[in-house]
Amino acid sequence: MKVALVCKSDTTGGAAVVTFRLMNALRRKGVDARMIVVEKLSDSPWVIEAASARRAKIPFIIERLRIFLKNGFRKDTIFKIDTCTDGLPINKIPFVRQADVICLNWINQGMLSTRNIRMLAGLGSHLVWTMHDMWNMTGICHHAGYCREYISPDGECKRCPLLKGAMTRKTLAHHTWTRKRKMYSGCRFHFVAVSRWLADCARNSTLMDNARISVIPNAFPLLMNEMPKPITNKRIIFGAARIDDPIKGHDTLIEATKILAEKFPERAKEIELVTFGSLKNPDALANVGIRHTHLGRISPDEIKDVYQSGSVVVSSSEWETLPGTLIEGQAWGCVPVALDHGGQSDIIDHLATGYLVPWSDDMKKNALGIAEGIIWGFDNRERIMAAMQQSVISKFSEDAVAEAYIRLFKSFD
Questions:
Q1: CA dihedral 365, 370, 376, 380 (to 10 degrees)
Q2: Largest interatomic CA distance in the chain
Q3: What is the pTM of this model?
Q4: What value, to the nearest 5°, has the Cα angle with vertex 244 and ends 265 and 105?
Q5: Distance CA 180, CA 185 (A)
Q6: 153: which residues sit within 8 A by CB, 6+ positions away?
Q7: Is the pLDDT of residue 14 over 90?
Q8: What are the C-alpha distances in Å from 60 to residues 38, 54, 87?
Q9: Residue 293, class by beta-carbon neighbours within 10 Å (0-12 exposed, 13-18 middle, 19+ buried)?
Q10: pLDDT in tens, 188-216
């Protein structure tokens, strides 16, 4: 079986990293899987460049210029929007033409246009599209946030909050929504959502309400040969590519640390918050209410040691598709504590493998729930350790995920 995994990069970005893992896991299972990318940074012989670096820049620049011009020269949203108007003819690549299955992943920012995708459909291969965010079900955004245009029967993304000025029927968002609808009706896709929450969002959307959707999570390289050792410290781990990205809810985390200091003063003296990732605003974590260490950006080789030094891993994100920090932390000995607002429930079985905080529009209620969850995590870590590890292995190991994709591919025969 030949499988072409299409993604903009092989190592840059979350979708690229998990797709690269999937390719290697499939190959270990005997599948001839190869990645087709615009940006090749690894030395893997199984990663094929879609075009030269110079050729690949052309559709990227043209598409960004189109967005910039049509959105009133706004810089703040230029990389929050994708329109799929320009791309590369990867249907001409020999391995793509030979593939039994073409699996699209993150294909935006000038990699593929809707026309390029229709060309792939014309090859006669089975088409799978793995959704790593919400872009497939919206007009132009990757995360709808609190916007409900994508599920409104009469909305169809006509009033996009990312666009400037009066939102008419001919807005960039609605025009892209319409092109997607035509593409979906003309191509037979099988979509894969990386969490049940994402699948439900797609099924509730006006764009994908009739789509065929399976749920298969992302794969994680979890090599766990022994149980994590008991630790005496009370350390909370919190990480993100950019910690002060508003979507990550760092204000909620800070509020939770203040509640720890106020509600559990004696215990708070023993607790340390350890954060990792970049900060756009150096003062974003200045008001943390407990002892705090910021590690900055860390390498993949360091991340396991960071988790193994902690007891609890927290996600305070407003919404997440499938937060990898919770999976990694859980695998390496941290009790996951998170707001139940996305794919977190695919990872955490409340009070059995972690702590889920019911979502509220009130940030202080969310922060209180996280603070209480942290205390629960410290008190129950040893008791639930075995259950946490077994849950991660059965759901998120590379072998388990590769086998799920192989079953899906074979179902097409």
A1: 150
A2: 66
A3: 0.90
A4: 125
A5: 9
A6: 206
A7: no
A8: 10, 10, 7
A9: exposed
A10: 999 999 999 999 999 999 999 899 999 99
